[in-house]
Amino acid sequence: MVRPIVIHFASALLLAGLGAQTAFAEQASSQREDDASQPAAVVEMTDQLHYQPDKVTIQAGETVLWKNEPSTIAHTVTAVRKLAKNPDNVALPEGADEFNSEKMEAGDTFTHTFQVPGTYRYFCIPHERAGMVGEVVVEPADAQQDDEAADKHPSTAEQDGDTSSSGEETGAGTSDEGDTLVLGMHSPPRPPDYRDATGLKKFLYWVGNFHPPGSDLPVGAAVVAFVSELLFLVTGRALFAAATRVSVWVAGLSAAGVAIGGWCLAGFRFDDPNWMLETHRWWGTGTALGMLVLVGIAEVAYRKQSDAARWTFRLGLLAGVIALGVTGYFGGAMIYGIDHFAWPG
Predict the structure, then answer these.
(1) Does residue 229 sit in the same domain as residue 328?
(2) pLDDT digits (tens, 9 = 90+) for 134-192
(3) Per residue in 177-233, pLDDT tens?
């Protein structure tokens, strides 16, 4: 009688122990998965062309997550020496692999796991000259931490989302010589809700896509008007005066259209997080209004044949050409960096 009771009691204890062990193992496994999903450091990218923070410290085997937010323009996380304008902007410990996020639009993320201790320095391809450089300091981990890191991070680098080995989806590829080809890297600033917009707002954002290519038209027309006016001043031929008149009309109307497209592209707001975007916006708006006024002055000069009106027009045209150049410079600075006209080297 006693023996069956003892056997049943021992069996119950054994089953309870196995159940507790299984639950503990599942809990530990779940904890490891939770730990693996949490990066050791998070770095954000800003419209002021900075990594925030620009320096982080982690241990070997841990992961850093980069998020292209709150920025509204494209960035990269690049530690590839041959892609750097200044080799000092890339630093890798001996034995560490280079890494490159490729083009990251607003809202995109990129992760990289650092296995080799040391100091890593990386940069943003389109904004390197603007000083967009970051640093990761990787400290050695003890043996236990190394084992845990190996379980947590089996891969060395990956970018969220699907990627193509040929580089078709990321905008990059590799040539026969092994050189990395970075294509489609540069993109204009867009409002935070660009991808989720609907209705009229979506249409206006679409109209804004014509702003970058359309900006060449008023610049070219203004230059043609300036050159033809110089030729008219030298030769006195009516043909050049007519060319000036037509070119000024094209420059004025196209400048107004491009300015409207710029507001559609960057959003209808009066203050911008990026000072270069704000400068470009208001220089462009003011220049477009000035070019429309210049059209009126040109018509007065043409119809009245007044020397005073003609010279006023000429000075205004010179100012308009300069203003268009300044506007274009800041437009390029947002994408290629503030010193994108700097001499190579």
Answers:
(1) yes
(2) 999 999 987 445 555 555 555 444 444 443 333 333 333 333 333 433 333 445 566 66
(3) 334 333 334 455 666 666 677 888 889 888 988 998 899 999 999 999 999 999 999
- Which residue, among 59, 18, 52, 56, has the nearest Cα to 35 in the 3D structure? 59
For residue 179, tell me if it sits in a domain: no
Start-end of H helices in the chain: 2-37, 143-152, 199-208, 211-214, 216-235, 238-266, 275-304, 307-336
Longest Cα–Cα distance in the chain: 129
Same domain, 229 and 310: yes
Burial class (CB in 10 A: 0-12, 13-18, 19+), 121: middle
pTM above 0.90, yes or no: no
Low-confidence ranges of the chain (pLDDT < 70): 1-37, 143-195, 273, 344-345
Same domain, 127 and 245: no
Distance CA 80, CA 306 (A): 62
User: Is residue 213 located within the same domain as residue 330?
Assistant: yes
**Rounded CA separation 133/251 (Å):** 39
- For strand 99-100 and strand 78-79, is the pairing parallel, antiparallel, or unpaired? antiparallel
Looking at the fold, whether 203 and 315 belong to one and the same domain comes out as yes
In whole angstroms, what is the distance from residue 50 CA to residue 70 CA?
A: 11
Per the structure, the count of domains in the chain is 2
The answer as to whether 278 is a domain residue is: yes
Residue 130, domain extent: 41-139
Task: Answer whether 86's CB lies under 8 Å from 337's CB.
Answer: no
